[in-house]
Amino acid sequence: MTDQTRLAQTKEAATIALPQAMARAQRETGKSVFGQAREMLLLRRGLGGITPQEYIANRLFDDDRFTTADKRAFLGVRGEHAVDRICNADHRWRAPVKDKIVFAAMMRGLGFPVPELIAFHHARRRCFMGADLRTREDLLGFLRGLKRPVFGKPLGGRWSLGAASLEGYDAPSDTVRTLGGATIGVEDLADQIAAFADEGYLFQERLVPHAMLAEICGPAVGTVRLLTAMTGRGPELIATVWKVIGGGNIADNFWRRGNMLAAIDSDSGTVLRVASGLGHEAATHESHPDSGMPLPGLVLPDWQAARATCLSAATALAGLRLIGWDIALTERGPVIVEANTLPAFNLHQIATGRGLLEGRFAEFVASCRR
């Protein structure tokens, strides 16, 4: 579990020691180090842009599991950027999804469910949908008046860096309680938030997961990443993954130790496969490690409503042909948390154990090129 008294400023990224990993892959599969290196060079040149570390992370050295065509279907970070440029060529459409305040205001104005914005800390900019905390004194006053749970995050943040899940204020100790039961001194918390002051810091309502999911994963919300493709026939749901929270984490990002990824059938919302770890540490799960409750075969709650919300919202951003939507399945139904034009394709690849650039997704990317 991540230390909830410190706002994370860097990811706890898994590091792969390449020589050792390649030697282990040779021992496990019989594929020579030379053969692996040659294949790494070939996959680096394709659209996927797979790096040597991504090659190991996705276990592409395993010839019993993957054919050459299977391996070419994997997309690395370079490949993700290339696909984004192909599918979302008009950069003017990116602005509404890059700014969390603008995005929330737009979605709310169009009638879509989004988290309530409670306050915003920035010296100059205003949010108009919650309290504006211009100064440190304003921020301290807000924290000391906290009577309801809130979720805090930097305005321009990614990967849940800088996120905080707060319960409320304790006056005798002048501390704020976190979701996990830890406490942070108010002055200390304000100092940590100040590290994000240039971009601004948001406080939103803390969403409550659907009762079924809370029983499995605990009180924090793990969103579902729905990948929509804007085709000539309208929006289509093309891939889906559930970011499963574990290990007492406050956010669902895969880099947080204990979290998992679940491949989801896009039509029914059924969990197909659950995975964690990368490369030689990769594992699959039949049950949740914390609650012991079964995962594969589970049908996510309010799935058809989540699908409908996502597909409808995609029509408001029709100039972005490929969007990754984060939808929270909450006690009051699906809620749109954010939209992404670089939607971390590897989340889907880890969850399914397959490359994304095949089948319907490959057809769609090809159509965007034409």
Which overall shape is indicated by the principal axes computed on the Cα atoms?
Answer: globular
Percent of residues in helices comes to 25-40%
N-to-C order of helices and strands: HHHHHHHEEHEEEEHEHEEEEEHEEHH
Gross CATH architecture of the largest domain: 2-Layer Sandwich
Unreliable spans are none
Q: How many domains?
A: 3
Explain the overall architecture.
By secondary structure, the protein is α+β, with helices and mostly antiparallel strands. It has 3 domains: 67 residues, no CATH class; 180 residues, 2-Layer Sandwich (D-amino Acid Aminotransferase, Chain A, domain 1); 89 residues, no CATH class. 32% of the residues lie in helices and 22% in strands. The protein contains 13 helices and 14 strands. The strands form 2 sheets. Strands 2-1-7-3-4-5-6 form a 7-stranded mixed β-sheet. Strands 12-11-10-9-8-13-14 form a 7-stranded antiparallel β-sheet, with helices on both faces. The longest helix has 13 residues. It is globular.
List the helices and strands and how they pair.
Layout: H1 18-29, H2 33-45, H3 52-57, H4 68-72, H5 77-87, H6 95-98, H7 100-109, E1 117-121, E2 131-133, H8 136-144, E3 150-154, E4 164-170, E5 175-178, E6 183-185, H9 186-194, E7 201-205, H10 211-217, E8 224-231, E9 234-244, E10 260-264, E11 271-276, E12 283-284, H11 303-314, E13 322-330, E14 333-340, H12 345-352, H13 359-369
Helix pairs in contact: 8-9
